[in-house]
Amino acid sequence: MESLKDFIASQAEKLRNEESQAARKRDEWVGAVDRLNEQIREWLTSADPDHAILEVRETPFQLREEGIGGYEARGLLIRVGRREIRVAPIARNVAGPLSETGVIHVNRAFGRVDLTDGLQKYMIFRVEKEPEDRWRIIKQDGYRMQGFDLRAFEEAFKALLE
Amino acid sequence: MIDLDEAWSWYVTTRNQLHLFARLGQKHWAGLPWEGSLGRDDHLKGLESEAIVAGSEFCLEHLDDFAVLILFSVFESIIRDQVLSEVEDEKGRIRNEVVLQIVNDGTEVIEHGGFYRVLQVFKGRDAGLVEAVNQVRRYRNWVAHGRRTSQPDSVDPETAFRRLKNFLGILGIGAAGGS
């Protein structure tokens, strides 16, 4: 029979593994959000090279998720005159928006970031993480999900300002 | 009893109304003809554009989570009713008092017990489907208990609605048609 000492040692090992898995998952997700922010910044810079209209700054979001714990992820705050648009990381663990239920399997997304002015909302789902991130965007009351590229971003950004 | 489509319709309508009012406040408030009856309306004349937008933002900030909560409550009620009615049908044929007592105890669980146990009944039919609904259930519980613990898999209202509707549709339960 396993002694208490051995039991505690094996539990400690299990705990260490869980913690390191959670840390890997968190870091990988926070990195993905940073890359997305960077991409959005590039697109905004090419639209307003002199930063004459758009004021973009990074802003922290505190999140706490099952299996990951509490952590900070960075989003963006984009000011256009008196209007404000946020790029807000929502969660690493999300129920997949394209989920097939029934006899099929449940697809998952690997994170969600919202693009919002506080009223209208676009949800950007990370649908693939390997070999590299792939994001798709859908308007909250929309039915068409599309790849998150420059065109989709511009369309969403303009709609939020209209 | 409200059905799933009505609950969804409530959510969409509420969201749209808030968007409309916010848009009116944000874009057109100053341009309204305040010199007429509008300017004499005590409910409206003191209202400022920023307050309308801020109020709408505040409501929308929580609306999605509450929608998931309501959608799931409606779904839960439909499922409990359905299972209860199936058990009642079977109960009529039971003659043995001991078995009847066991079934009555089971009925108690269906009516008042944890919904997780009720959902397990359907696992034999489709485990993936039950897990998809369980994800929504866990998120609903997190919202209902004040979002005090770590957040489970995040669920948006549309995903919740589709999953719950799918469940009812595939298992042929309740009014799953429409939408």
Question: What key attributes describe this structure?
Answer:
heterodimer, A: 162 residues, alpha+beta, B: 179 residues, mainly alpha
Give structural notes.
The complex is a heterodimer of chains A (162) and B (179). Mean pLDDT of chain A is 89; it is low at 99-106. The termini of chain A are far apart. Chain A has two helices and nine strands. The longest helix of chain A is centred in the first third of the chain and has 44 residues, at 4-47. Chain A has 162 residues and is α+β, with helices and mostly antiparallel strands. With 179 residues, chain B is an all-alpha fold. Chain B has one domain (4-171). Helix content of chain B is 68%, strand content 0%. Chain B has six helices and no strands. In chain B, helix 1 runs antiparallel to helix 2, helix 2 runs antiparallel to helix 3 and helix 5 crosses helix 6 (157-170). Chain B is elongated. The model of chain B has no long low-confidence stretch (mean pLDDT 89). Classes of the chains: A alpha+beta (162), B mainly alpha (179). The A-B interface holds A 63-70, 90-91, 93-97, 99, 101-106, 112, 118-120, 123, 140-141 and B 12, 15-16, 18-19, 22-23, 26, 53, 56-57, 60-61, 126, 128-129, 131-133, 135-136, 139, 149-156, 158-160, 162-163, 166-167, 170.
Structural class of chain A: alpha+beta
The largest sheet of chain B, given as strand count, sense and whether it forms a barrel, is: none
- Residue-averaged pLDDT of chain B, rounded? 89
Low-pLDDT segments of chain B:
none
Number of domains of chain A: 1
Assembly of the depicted chains? heterodimer
Q: Largest interface: which pair?
A: A-B, 29 and 38 residues
Shape of chain A: elongated
Report the radius of gyration of chain A as a whole number of Å. 19 Å
Shape of chain B: elongated
